[in-house]
Amino acid sequence: MNVIVCVKQIPDPAQVGELDPSDNTLKRDGKLILDESDSYGVEMALQLVTTAGGDEVSLVSMAPNGETSGLRTALAMGAAKAVLVSDPALAGSDALTTAKILAAASKRLGDADLIIAGTESSDGYTGTVPEQIAEVLGLPSVTFAKHIEVAGDSVNVQRQTEAGYDEVTCPLPAVVSVTAGVVEPRYPSFKGIMAAKSKPVDEVTAADLDVTPVGWAGAGQEIVEVASAPEREAGEVIEDDGEGYTKIVEFLDRLKVI
Amino acid sequence: MAISNVWVFAQGANGAPTSSTQELLTKAREIGSSITAFVVGEAESFAAGLGEYGATKVYATGDLGGKLPGAAGAAAMKAVIDGGDVPDVILFPQNYEGRDVLARLSVKLDKPVLTNNTELAVQDDVVLVTTPVFGGTKLVRTTFTGGGPFLVAFRPKSFVAEASGGGAPEVVAAPVPDLGAAGGAQVQAVHVEEHTGPKLDEADIVVSGGRGLGEASKYEMIEALAKALKGAPGASRAIVDAGWVPYSYQVGQTGKVVKPTVYIAAGISGATQHMVGMKGSKNIIAINKDKEAPIFGVADLGIVGDVHKVLPKLIEALQKR
Which pTM was predicted? Predict the structure, then answer.
């Protein structure tokens, strides 16, 4: 079984994000790390191929520079190889262009049986890319999966809904987007980290994939203004002396909600 | 070309349009002159309600027979557009179904999408949307540089719903065309999680718990406090990811957006992810051990203390009243 995971390398979310003053897109020029939301997909894929036996997990990713540190994390977890679409012209690409790029990149790895992606990235969180990839490739899809099982030539998925979850079956090949918490991502072992250094990363440009237009120019969108949101003022903060709860009761009383 | 033909991706529940649908239809009336609701599924039971919020026409695919809405809904919309009814803009709710249909449709139309928005305006015949970023500290206004249809999605509660008192709309069948391989996913069974008390995104009081509770069993305190206040229990992403409570409890960017009269955050530090979902609450009470926790920056009343000590006393005091 050929399983491909779409992974994104993002600026460290622990750092304060910054917008590029020239075009107001998110700055991504520093060190990039593996998006935590994608570590669930990588783990899920590794577990699925282990169950199926003797198969590999491949990665596809896109980055404006040749950054691979996030990819190496996923390779260290156990993925076998990666295609990285790296091209300065990709900076500022919108979700639709991203989906076209990732779909084309996945084809370089042969016909996938299953493409796994996170529900949404932690930096841009447009939340449409997995479903867009499916449509570009003409594949069926199941989004918001909280459990996946391969059964012959189809997958059984528990898909989250507003009310609970649905049990969905879907023939392969297919695209599945997974939510956080679907599995517990493994920590890369020392051996895994060493092995990842020599695993193949196929670096290509957008032109190699015949996808145009790319980048902010091709996004069909323009940021016209960035403003600070009105601040919410902090109120009274008190240390609990054992009677702190009475302050809450008084507060609720004043609002006439109790 | 001015914005006139506005579509809303509409959903119903219990015989009425959902609150998101009512909000989007209300906003649609403000920017457009012809308002159409597009229902991916059966619309008969709530078409009159769509009319009350201003839809004069309703397209409905009819029951999907277990197909997932993404591929089916987008294909049905594309068929209507190809048939000559071309919307200037389509407003989607930022939820499971809306997002999937929006994504598939963007590929079919080769048009970009703008999601997670909270405001909508029209300027020089092009739509302008506002998206909060960096935990809602910055507001980014974005517009489209190409032509429509403009595809935009809005977070729940971005607009205030108001009925227009419109009459029954014309209901037009918009059957799902043959989907080929893309339509392969099939729902086999539906599981509904039992809920008592008010719904999280509709409750007047929300009590949420986070990692500071220490262990899953302590979430009982959150449920007891919510019950005492006739409110709904909620949760931070951290404890949902840890499996303490189901995803449907999650408040935040990837969960529910709530704007209750009172929001009580217990043992929640206030990560960006969480703040986006609750900052719009009218009153915020926070209880946390760490006095540097970001949640205190938005709280009207902050108690620096141990939730395991504060909550039991608070619950007891409220139960006595």
Answer: 0.87
